[in-house]
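User: Predict the complex with zinc ion.
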Amino acid sequence: MMKEDYDIFGDVMVFDTTYRTNKYNLICAPFVGINHHWKNVMFGCAFLSDEKVESFQWLFEVFKKSMGGKCPVSFFTYQDQAISNAIEKVFPETRHRLCLWHLHQNAVNYKLENHPWFNRLYGLKEKWCTALSKDLFSAGILSSQRSESSNHAIGFSAKKNTSLTDFFGIFKEMLKNWRNKEQKDEFQCSRSIPESALPLTGMLKHASEVYTLTLFRDFEAEFLKSISSSSTLILVEDRMMVYNVSSHDNDGLSHRVIFDCLSNLITCSCKKFEECGFLCYHCLRVLHINSIVSIPESYIKKRWTKFAKSEIWDKFNSTVGRSEKFRDCIPWR
Ligand SMILES: [Zn+2]
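Assistant: Here is the predicted structure with zinc ion placed in the model:
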């Protein structure tokens, strides 16, 4: 199941080695991802006896091999040179990002202007500054208000005197809870149409049909902002239209949207789609002006939809089908 979850949701991964919760003082290192309901999924968990580059390199290589060679797009860790070096070696194409919540914890002292840690941190700004990493998918993990709560949810309820076998029990229990939650979310999504203060027509209706409830709420918020924003057409060249879109209620910042009216391809300078995987209100505004009533297919990321796990369902159904057929052949039934 972890491998299957990684195949679907392994584009973003969080790796945390801050747990030393067992009596052998081994470092517990879980690999955690985010599912289509914006909840945690476990990709794997390791124990390390030290934090050397070679150890992390070995671990990442084993992890990569067991996951069929797939590499994450964005990989979040806390600030550690050994982890950073190991990622560069094993996942050279992956964007290494630093978890802001760990940085916040380290930055609680003041008078940091000449502090070596703070200066080193500034040198690494590409790894933590949200404004500098909008070009690659990260599920919006740093810019979302959910990142804080997801951090706390990874915590294991193990203590310093927990043995490895006890830990395995705790780990299994936690996984069971996470998977039960996912099943409940799946059930709710399959059963209900989301309620909205806005009429469920056009693009919003389409969003309610494809997205999970959590993502529908995100989309709805963008849709609402698109209604109150204003746009100016500044250039038309063949099939390309260029707009400036700005909102009145926020900071008044305007963004540049380029729309190809033949292919329905659309890009925005805010790069929300690239970073978070759903369209921003700037794009929604322009699509609306151009009478587009459904979300163009290329802007629906399957990992955020109700059908994110459809391939697993198909596989499961075919296995169940086979075993049922097999059962029918058993003479003593
Ligand atoms: Zn935008």
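Residues 202-300 form one domain.
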